[in-house]
Amino acid sequence: MAIGKHCSVSAALIGILALFAAPANADMGLYPLRQVLTEDNPSAEFTVSNPSDRIIDGRVTWVDLTATEEGYTPALPEAREDLSAAPYLVVSPAHFRLKPGARMSVTVAIRDGAVLPKGERRSHLLIETEASRTPIRKASDSGLQVDVSLAVSAPVILRNGGKAKAKITDTKLLRDKEGLLFLETSVTPEGDNSSYGRIVVDYTPDEKDAETHRLGARDNVAGFIDAEKRTVSVPFGFLSLSAGELVVRYEGADEYEGVLFDKRAYDIAPPADEN
Fold first, then answer.
1. For residue 74, what are the contacts with CB-CB under 8 A and spacing of at least 6?
2. C-alpha distances in angstroms, 79 versus 82, 202, 209, 272?
3. Domains recognised in the chain with CATH numbers
4. pLDDT tens digit string along 177-210?
5. What is the pLDDT of residues 207-240, one digit of tens each?
């Protein structure tokens, strides 16, 4: 594609990146990260915010995404039959306009008279904005102008019975390209419902009266039942650890606050030059 001084670029790639990579970006915010609906909790609200300096016009719809080990992918038609919650849900408003710095609420609710299927289903609330012309500076001339549209999403989970269970699996202590240690581990769902929480990593040196240190944590970790596992990494920022014990916990959050899904302990050998 040739790019001149002014160009109009399709926003499909930008929208896809925003949709699958994160629930919010610099030009539009969506909070919270997820919502859960049940017969006892039939409606919930998301907040859409406009931190940009332009007016944004948007629409609100549903999209079905299949969970993967590291994120989401568009759901195939055969998967949607048992996955999609959208047929049982309504959303309001369907369209909106937000001035710079403004925010608004989007309500998701179980459709009146809907007979909920047993177990868990999930669809993603999708917020899309119309394309707007955005200037981009270029060193060699006065700049480019790009037509940019945005898309952000958050899962809405519909539950009717069932329990959530999950295990910590495939834990590895690795190094990044700078040589710093990080933990890679997976959450493997084992229940009827998805799990949700945080991975926390604590370390206790092999010394008398040694204190336990929090090496790191990773929030917003969901073990969706349509994925075999969810793999996450927790950076430590250390080059090495002395002998001791590493404890990894998968702790519940939101509706699972106070639940310990799983806990694993690992012995850390001293570095080779200490042997």
1. 63, 64, 65, 66
2. 6, 38, 53, 49
3. 12-160 (2.60.40.10), 166-274 (2.60.40)
4. 999 999 999 999 999 999 999 999 999 999 989 9
5. 989 999 999 999 999 999 999 999 999 999 989 9
